């Protein structure tokens, strides 16, 4: 009984068990024994599914979740689940904006330590990943993998790579190929129970569900505006940065949004998808068609299209108050779209 109490008291104030190899200390003898397996490379805990062995039982326990698919650690903000607590901690930094790893050279901060290590190579010039065929070196493993799969040396893809039979794209993991294949098959196994919309990937469904539960975990650091989806924030940030990643191949003009580039391309192609059903005249922009319809007296002052109209168009014409003698509205079709109009 006394020895049990003595052992327990050590837990609070001392670490009497020291590793002879690295001098690390432990409160309990069992922890020291488990730690020493790192040095001896003894791995007594083996996975019954794939045979992989581990020095510690905790390592085996975490590994088994790969086979069971168990993800017990859930993000309280967006609901995304993880198999390890460490993964949840790193993920949560997306919402908190915490970046604890700072580059001593330039002061840039990162949410993950491995990203800092990769970044530091831009200062040191270190390129640890070398091609055994031609000697070209890379700062990141992904760069070396792309180089190898590029077929520059006439080599076939490395054993273990998974190739899409439809488009030829290769993946290092079978899960990556499986997710990618759904693009071609149209298989959308993840369905929203709220509205029925389906997705090819689970993480896309989780992001979508934020629309229904009104959670907006992605906040702009510049102005504080919040978004339910990461893509929404990415698009919004371009207002502050002035970034215009979508460039017209014809004239070089750049745009912040893909939808704006699509509209602009009609200038070169002379495509005019918005046609007036009254006189047949067609326009490149929806706003121009709305202005034209007023000439026929077939458009309400609100100038609003139906809910079924394609998104991404210009803002509607500002609404003006109706006169008491304004005739009742009727529906007018323009190129398959229904508008409120006057009789």
Offer a quick outline of the entry.
This protein is α+β, with helices and mostly antiparallel strands and 343 residues long. The chain has eleven helices and 22 strands. Strand 7 and strand 8 (109-110) form a beta hairpin.
Strand content: 15-25%
Cα-based radius of gyration, to the nearest Å: 30 Å
Would you tell me the structural class of the helices and strands?
A: alpha+beta
* Spatial gap, N to C terminus: 96 Å
Mean of residue pLDDT?
Answer: 75
In order across it, which strands form the biggest sheet? Answer: 1-2
Number of helices: 11
Report the oligomer: single chain
Uncertain runs with pLDDT below 50, 5 residues or more?
300-343
DSSP, total strands:
22
Helix content: 25-40%
Largest sheet features: 2 strands, antiparallel
Q: Which outline best applies?
A: elongated
Subcellular location: Nucleus
InterPro entries: Krueppel_C2H2_ZnFinger, Znf_C2H2_sf, Znf_C2H2_type
Domain C2H2-type: 17-44, 45-72, 73-100, 101-128, 129-158, 162-189, 190-217, 218-245, 246-273, 274-301
Protein name: Zinc finger protein 16-like
Describe this structure in words.
This protein is α+β, with helices and mostly antiparallel strands and 343 residues long. It is built from 11 helices and 22 strands. It has helices at 2-13, 29-40, 57-68, 85-96, 113-124, 141-149, 174-185, 202-209, 230-241, 258-269, 286-296; strands spanning 17-18, 25-26, 45-46, 53-54, 73-74, 81-82, 101-102, 109-110, 129-130, 137-138, 162-163, 170-171, 190-191, 198-199, 218-219, 226-227, 246-247, 254-255, 274-275, 282-283, 329-334, 337-342. The strands form 11 sheets. It has a two-stranded antiparallel ribbon. Strands 3-4 form a two-stranded antiparallel sheet. The model is unreliable at 300-343 (pLDDT under 50).
């Amino acid at each position: 009984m006394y020895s049990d109490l003595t052992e327990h008291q050590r837990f609070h104030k001392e670490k009497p068990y020291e590793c002879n190899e690295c001098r690390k200390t432990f409160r309990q003898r069992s922890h020291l024994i488990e730690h020493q397996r790192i040095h001896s490379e003894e791995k007594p805990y083996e996975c019954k599914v794939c045979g992989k062995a581990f020095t510690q039982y905790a390592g085996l326990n975490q590994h088994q979740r790969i086979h069971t698919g168990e993800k017990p650690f859930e993000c309280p903000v967006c609901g995304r689940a993880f198999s390890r607590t460490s993964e949840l901690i790193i993920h949560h930094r997306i919402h908190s904006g915490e970046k604890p790893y700072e580059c001593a050279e330039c002061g840039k901060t990162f949410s993950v330590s491995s990203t800092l290590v990769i970044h530091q190579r831009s200062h040191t010039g270190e390129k640890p990943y070398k091609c055994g065929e031609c000697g070209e070196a890379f700062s990141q493993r992904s760069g070396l993998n792309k180089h190898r799969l590029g077929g520059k040396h006439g080599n076939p893809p490395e054993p273990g790579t998974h190739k899409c039979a439809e488009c030829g794209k290769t993946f290092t993991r079978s899960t990556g190929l499986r997710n990618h294949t759904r693009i071609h098959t149209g298989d959308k196994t993840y369905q929203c129970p709220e509205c029925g919309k389906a997705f090819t990937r689970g993480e896309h469904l989780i992001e979508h569900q934020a629309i229904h539960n009104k959670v907006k975990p992605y906040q702009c650091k510049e102005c504080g505006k919040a978004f339910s989806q990461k893509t929404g924030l990415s698009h919004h940030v371009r207002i502050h940065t002035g970034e215009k990643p979508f460039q017209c191949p014809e004239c070089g003009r750049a745009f912040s949004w893909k939808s704006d580039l699509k509209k602009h391309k009609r200038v070169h192609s002379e495509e005019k998808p918005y046609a007036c059903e009254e006189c047949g005249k067609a326009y490149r922009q929806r706003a121009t068609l709305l202005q034209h319809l007023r000439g026929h007296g077939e458009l309400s002052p609100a100038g609003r299209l139906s809910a079924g109209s394609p998104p991404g168009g210009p803002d509607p014409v500002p609404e003006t108050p109706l006169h008491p003698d304004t005739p009742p509205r009727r529906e007018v079709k323009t190129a398959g779209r229904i508008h409120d109009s006057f009789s």
